[in-house]
Amino acid sequence: MKPVTVYDIAREANVSVATVSRVINNTAPVKKSTREKVLELIQKYQFQPNALARSLFKKETGMIGVILPDITNPFFPEVLAGLDQEARSKGYTFFLCDTVSTNGNSYEQYVRESQYLNILIEKQADGIIMIGGRINLARPGSDLVNEVVEAGKRVPLLLINGNLPGEGLTRIYADEREGAELATQHLIDLGHRNIAFVGGFRKMSNTLQRIQGFVRTMEKNGLQARKEWVLDGGFSVETGKSFLNRLLDLPERPTAIFCANDLVAIGVMKAANKAGLQVPQDLSLVGFDDIPYASNSIPELTTVSLKCYDVGRGAAELLHQMITKNKVGKNTKIRPELIVRESTAPPK
Q1: What does residue 184 show for φ and ψ, rounded to 5 degrees?
Q2: Residues 283 and 195 in one domain
Q3: Which residue in 53, 44, 49 sits closest to 24, CA to CA?
């Protein structure tokens, strides 16, 4: 049986194709009796509008592309959950582009970002969202910056949590420096004076912002951030274990550790347990991100929430406004929140 088309519906209803389109997409008023006649025929033939035909007619695909560095990192699914919820409500689906490198090679990751930018433009995505990767570099190369700027001239493009300073790109972000200040002040208020910071990569702007928040809060309280207690080199559980072992080998040990993310904090917690230390009795820990593991660890992890779900929903709303050519602010800030659980206590 030949599939029913929008032209067949229009012919039988004795209306124009444009009228049928208005009924389907609810884009303009249609006389009640006409609308009912068209809807009755759509129901009768179980008509499903062809997505490609609709995109040609409306000059839209209903698709947004999301480029991120590693879907296995628990931080990103929470952002995507909020993004999906809001995007669906506005009729979008998203095309997920994971740029993770099989061997941890950052150059390979940036090559994949470039490939996905081109693919999404070729597929006429209505908009593009970038999370992590090159937009989190403290000093990205001009070639990496120019690719994103040029893509942003061709399609609405939004950054989440990262930035390319001076380029005027639209972004939504959680204030990571403020989050670090909240975490550090919490430990100081508990009575800790010997506090370490571990995790992240100094080449990344998000790590630098967290370190700056840590150092500034220590100095504000008349305390010194000791260089040997500020360690970087990764965001994983394994690097967290390594960081604690390095601290335990020093002549003096901190009584509290602020970790660059929750995975590092969980690694520190595991290494502390193996070394015979109790958290928080012997060592207080604060994480960052508030991933699901944080509330399920033993003890439950005190951490900083970057409101990932809210950031995701906000990103979808902002991109929709950009796609529909509404004016939006260049910077939308989400304030972080300190989540106090069981891994912090006053020092002995």
Answers
A1: -65, -45
A2: yes
A3: 49
Write the pLDDT tens digit of every residue in 167-188.
Answer: 889 999 999 999 999 999 999 9
Burial per residue of 184-198, b for 16 or more beta-carbon CB atoms within 10 angstroms, e otherwise:
bbbbbebebebbbbb
Distance CA 204, CA 210 (A): 10
Q: Are residues 246 and 151 in the same domain?
A: no
Asked whether residue 38 falls in the same domain as residue 81, the answer is no
Separation between Cα atoms, residue 268 and residue 241, nearest integer Å: 5
Q: With 90 as the cut, is the pLDDT of residue 105 above it? A: no
Is residue 218 predicted with pLDDT exceeding 50? Answer: yes
Output the pLDDT for position 52. Answer: 45
Separation of alpha carbons 304 and 217, rounded Å: 15
Q: Of all residues in the chain, what percent carry a pLDDT higher than 70?
A: 94
- Here the tokens at position 320 are 């929709």
Question: For the chain, how many structural domains are there in total?
Answer: 3
- Rg over CA atoms, the chain: 25
Name residues whose C-beta falls within 8 Å of residue 260's C-beta, 6 or more positions apart in sequence: 197, 198, 199, 200, 207, 210, 232, 235, 288
Lowest mean pLDDT among 16-25, 94-103, 293-302: 16-25
Q: Would residue 345 count as lying in a domain?
A: no
294 and 317 in a single domain? The answer is no
> CA 133, 180, 245 angle in degrees (round to 5)?
80
CA distance 272 to 283: 8
Strands 256-259 and 303-305: unpaired
280 upstream amide cis, omega within 30 of 0: yes
Question: Given the DSSP bridges, would you call strands 303-305 and 337-339 parallel, antiparallel or unpaired?
Answer: antiparallel
User: Do 195 and 170 belong together in one domain?
Assistant: no
Residue type, 53: A
Domain assignment of residue 26, given as a range:
6-58
